Every structure is written in structure tokens, then in C-alpha cells.
TrEMBL record:
The active site is at T12, T85. Keywords: Hydrolase. Substrate binds at S54, T85, D86. This is asparaginase. It comes from Sporofaciens musculi. SMART domains: Asparaginase.
Length: 340
């Protein structure tokens, strides 16, 4: 029987009612006691790294999680992490970069309703996660939620209350789990390189969500105080006239000084393409900036934290690394390469 390590971090799945509202209170062993059927699937040990609403999860907790997986890597065949849903997509993307080439699956799950409730998604999500983690074809970092398996870099929380909280953005579900059976849609080649762990995440990242008529006065502050500015633009990507002059000034002033700008979009599906409209094409031609293409915002942010954590790199080097696919995070650059 496969041996799986369950790692508790808190979230709704672990929550109980308090006088101030739901708060995590159950241990991973408490949570596990609600799915006795797991005994037919695998052997489970439990550890707890924190007990937080995932609103309070930070890069420090990603490090604790990666460290727990590394320390126990030899002793177990797979890992199931229980996590709050609010920032689960960030943690899954972060761990996709911090833990590379893992032939052993690292499954992240959670729930919209506490496991103690009579009507809850928690038990199904958790049991499905163990089923997936114990399967010999599973590998790398994935989310198992509401019967779907999502690559760790492709998830977005799109629903605040429903059980189908997460969607796989610009990429198919890897698999579905129906009545305990895994149906795989994507066959992944076995990991070619040995597993690798890295811990340095530079969190100097700011996300600037554009609104119509936005004032440019924020830009100098952002360029001065952050090493990476992710611009959540409209549609396929562009800089509005109200910002463009100041943007040009800042980009010129900070060029070659280890600042990175990534253009992404507020639109959840189908990604950016700055070459379509004048408002994007000019900026892309005039400046060294990165483009998210089909990546999720969560993947963009955590990939930049991870790449910047490796040390300061010239733009060309950063560009090459940013556009290198990891755990299915970016496909569009492959298409561009094919098309020349
Ligand atoms: N469904 C949940 O888990 C939401 C909770 N606030 C959390 O992210 O920890």
C-alpha cells in the first residue's frame, strides 16, 4: 500500500464555528477521522505546519510546506496538503516552482464547507485527493477539487461559495475523479530530472490593476519600491493614454536596474496578446517587458518571485526563464516559437 503524508495548514476544511465566525481548529488527524474509507486507499501519516485561514498564508508558509515535503520525500510516496481555498491557487503555483520534477505527487485540496458539517464537499475532496496521490501515474503539484484535477499553475478560484470553486485557466483539466476512479485527459511524460527544491522567493511584486482614467502619479512610487510590477491591463493588453507618458519616463529611468514589468490581463480566459492593438504593440516594441500570454495571474506572480529569488538577472535572461514552461504554466510561447 502507498504511504501518503497529509500536511495540514488550516482553511475551511479544518474550521469550526467560533463566536467570531469560522476559524481553523481541527488537526489533520481530526480531519482524517471523517474519511474512514481512506484505509482502503493508502496508509496516511499526518503533520501540521500551521492552522490558518489561507487569507493569512504568506511566502514563509510556502517555504514551510516545501521544506516539509523535502524532509519527508524519501519516506513517502505522495503528499496531500489541506489548505484554505482563498489563496490555494497561489500556494499551488508557488509550490510548482519551488518543487520541480517531482515524480511523487503533491496534491493540494480544501473545501468550501467545514468537514464537520453534515452537508460538505470536504470529505469527497479529501478522499479524491488520497486516491489521486496514491495512483502510480500521478506526479508533480496538482489541485484536486470538486472531482477535477488541475495543474498547480493553472487554477483560479472563480466561485466564492459553490463547490466548483476552481477552474483550470487556458489549459484542460489533467483528469477527473468520478466515484473513486481517475479518468486522465492528459498523459504526462515521466519526470526526466531528479526532484529539486528551492526556497528563495523575492516578494517585491506589485499588481497594478488598471481602471479607466487611472492617474499616473502612482507609477513613480511603484517603480521605486518594487522590483516587479505586474500590470493587469484590459483585454489583450495595452497602456492607456493617461499613464503612457509617465510609464515611458519610468521605464527609461529604471532600464537595466533590475526592475521587471509583466503585462497581463484582467480577463480570466484566453490571455494577452500585445501585438493586436496600437495601445499594446507600441509599448511592447519600445520597452523590454514581459508578457503573461496564457498564464494565470497566480502563476505570473509566484514565477516572478521565484525567478527573482535566484538573483538579479538581465532582462534577456529573465525573459528566457519566464517563458520556459514549468508544470504546464505557459503554452503560448511554444506556439509563437512554432510560428516563428
Ligand atoms: N473555503 C475556504 O477555505 C476559505 C477560507 N477563508 C480559507 O481560505 O482559508
Amino acid at each position: 500500500m502507498k504511504r501518503i503524508l497529509m500536511i495540514g495548514t488550516g482553511g475551511t476544511i479544518a474550521s469550526t464555528q467560533t463566536e467570531y465566525g469560522l476559524a481553523p481548529g481541527l488537526t489533520p488527524a481530526d480531519i482524517l477521522s471523517y474519511i474512514p474509507a481512506v484505509r482502503q486507499v493508502c496508509e496516511v501519516d499526518t503533520i501540521q505546519v500551521c492552522n490558518l485561514d489561507s487569507t493569512n498564508v504568506t511566502p514563509e508558509h510556502w517555504r514551510l510546506l516545501a521544506r516539509s515535503v523535502e524532509e519527508n520525500y524519501e519516506a513517502y510516496d505522495g503528499f496531500v496538503i489541506c489548505h484554505g481555498t482563498d489563496t490555494l491557487a497561489y500556494t499551488a503555483a508557488a509550490l510548482s516552482y519551488m518543487i520541480r520534477n517531482s515524480a511523487k505527487p503533491i496534491v493540494i485540496t480544501g473545501a468550501q464547507k467545514p468537514i464537520q458539517m453534515d452537508v460538505t464537499d470536504a470529505r469527497t475532496n479529501l478522499l479524491d485527493s488520497f486516491i489521486y496521490a496514491a495512483d502510480h501515474e500521478s506526479q508533480n503539484v496538482n489541485i484536486v477539487f470538486d472531482g477535477k484535477v488541475i495543474a498547480g499553475t493553472r487554477a483560479k478560484k472563480e466561485r466564492a461559495k459553490s463547490y466548483d470553486a476552481f477552474s483550470s485557466i487556458n489549459f484542460p483539466y489533467l483528469a477527473v475523479i468520478q466515484e473513486g476512479m481517475i479518468v486522465r485527459y492528459i498523459k504526462e511524460p515521466p519526470c526526466a530530472a531528479p526532484v529539486g527544491f528551492s526556497y528563495d522567493m523575492k516578494d517585491s511584486v506589485y499588481v497594478l490593476k488598471l481602471i479607466p482614467g487611472m492617474h499616473a502619479s502612482i507609477l513613480p512610487y511603484l517603480f521605486e519600491h518594487y522590483d516587479c510590477i505586474v500590470i493587469e491591463s484590459f483585454g489583450v493588453g495595452g497602456i492607456p493614454n493617461t499613464l503612457v507618458q509617465e510609464f515611458y519616463r519610468e521605464m527609461k529611468e529604471w532600464e537595466g536596474k533590475g526592475k521587471y514589468v509583466v503585462m497581463t490581463t484582467q480577463v480570466a480566459n484566453e490571455g494577452s496578446n500585445m501585438t493586436v492593438y496600437e495601445v499594446g504593440k507600441r509599448v511592447k516594441q519600445d520597452f523590454k517587458l514581459l508578457e503573461a500570454y496564457d498564464m494565470t495571474l497566480e502563476a505570473v506572480i509566484t514565477k516572478m518571485m521565484w525567478l527573482m529569488g535566484k538573483g538579479r538577472a538581465a532582462y534577456e535572461r529573465m525573459k528566457e526563464d519566464f517563458y520556459t514552461e514549468i508544470n504546464h504554466d505557459i503554452l503560448f510561447t511554444k506556439r509563437l516559437e512554432r510560428e516563428g
